[in-house]
Structure formats: structure tokens, C-alpha cells
Amino acid sequence: MSSGRFHVSPRTRRGLLAATLISVVGGVLWLVRSKRPQPPAPAPAPPRIGYSRNGSAPAPVAGAGAENSH
């Protein structure tokens, strides 16, 4: 074991600092992006009232109009 300080060249130190800085910035950007509020879910379609144009109207009840036909 050496009791001296571990020597790192200035070029290696700059590379390590750049990699660390890029990692920190990427982590912060990911955190900010994941905390963005999500848009609300769309509201369900309201029930249709009145006539249908696509033929999906319910079948009339038998005898519903019979009292007005005499």
C-alpha cells in the first residue's frame, strides 16, 4: 500500500469531470421530464338524445303508438 496521493493526469481529470457533469445533467433532465403533469383523461361522451343517424336507435316498443291510431 502506498501512503502517497493517487496521481491522476489533468487530461483524465477533465474527462472524468465532463462525464460526471453530463451524467448529472442527464439525471436532472430525466427527473424534470418525469415530474411533468400529465394531461387529464378525456371525458366520456355524453349520451345521445334524439334521432340517430347511424341506425343504432333502439327498436320501438310493440303497441307504443297504438292508442293514437283510432
Features:
70 residues, mainly alpha, 1 helix, 0% strand
Give an account of the 3D structure.
- This protein is mainly α.
- 36% of the residues lie in helices and 0% in strands.
- The chain contains 1 helix and no strands.
- It has one helix spanning 10-34.
- The longest helix has 25 residues, at 10-34.
- The model has no long low-confidence stretch (mean pLDDT 78).
Shape: rod-shaped
Helix content: 25-40%
SSE topology string: H
Q: Helix- and strand-based class?
A: mainly alpha
Number of strands: 0
Distance between the termini: 113 Å
Strand residues, percent: under 5%
What is the secondary structure topology, with strand pairs?
Layout: H1 10-34
Characterize this entry briefly.
The protein is an all-alpha fold. The protein has one helix at 10-34.
